[in-house]
Design a protein that fits this description.
By secondary structure, this protein is α/β, with parallel strands linked by helices. It has 8 helices and 9 strands. It folds into 2 domains: 151 residues, SPOUT methyltransferase, trefoil knot domain (Alpha/beta knot, 3-Layer(aba) Sandwich); 61 residues, Trp Operon Repressor, Chain A, CATH 1.10.1270.
Length: 234
């Protein structure tokens, strides 16, 4: 998969994309990330990429021209990539959307900054708006990092253990069950006996029950969305 990120601050991504899962995906050839500096496409002699908003108001707004020229310049000769504007007013990212994006050959991510982006740029070169949560960040760069990380984990072979994707939070509609490792006892707290039993059916039953309990406690809205997942007494 190719992901092209359009931003005024490409330097923000260097440390995130040079470590851990994303680096592995890049090194293995599963992921090709291209950073495009929007400012490089400005026709202003000072490479200006923002201006004051019409109608007044605080802050600056990103100019349409550099954004549109940058995106059009990097459009592939064939095919049409998904073009996403990271925005607090977009549809909210969840695991199902991540899986949807992971099936694409190419994504283009537009990172807004300051007070936002000239609407004409959004209308011309963005197919959809996407939010990573109901809060406001200083720019779309952090949202793009979150999206890339979530998508990279789903690339074939990246995690090493494909079962990890099946068992983690949200993949089944539930939050993940508690995990334990050595030592067997720590500060007076012992690993649940069922996990040491070797009885796989009982372990799976315990994990599902705990996943339901965690979801009921922390995110009951997920159970409301899918009545088939509701907690049932043992």
């Amino acid at each position: 998969m190719t992901i092209k990120i359009f931003t005024l601050f490409p330097e923000m991504f260097s440390s995130v994309f040079s470590a851990s899962i994303i680096k592995r995906a890049i090194d293995d050839g599963a992921l090709n990330i291209q950073m495009i500096d929007i400012r490089a496409y400005s026709k202003d002699k000072h490479a200006c990429a923002d201006d004051y908003p019409f109608g007044g108001g605080a802050g600056m707004v990103m100019l349409a021209q550099p954004i549109v020229d940058a995106v059009l310049h990097h459009m592939p000769e064939s095919g049409k990539p998904r073009r996403i504007y990271l925005s607090p007013r977009g549809r909210r990212l969840d695991q199902r959307i991540v899986e949807e994006f992971a099936a694409e050959d190419e994504l283009m991510l537009l990172c807004g900054h300051y007070e936002g982006v000239d609407q004409r740029a959004i209308d011309l070169v963005a197919d959809e708006e996407l939010s990573i949560g109901d809060y406001v960040l200083t720019g779309g760069e952090l949202g793009a990092m979150v999206l890339v990380d979530a998508v990279a984990r789903l690339m074939p072979g990246v995690l090493g253990n494909e079962e990890s994707k099946r068992d983690e939070s949200f993949s089944s509609g539930l939050l993940e069950y508690p995990q334990y490792t050595r030592p067997r006892e720590f500060m007076g707290i012992e690993v649940p006996e069922v996990l040491l039993s070797g009885h796989h059916a009982n372990i799976e039953k315990w994990r599902r029950q705990k996943a339901l309990e965690v979801t009921q406690r922390n995110r009951p809205d997920l159970l409301e969305e899918d009545r088939s997942l509701r907690l049932r007494p043992e």
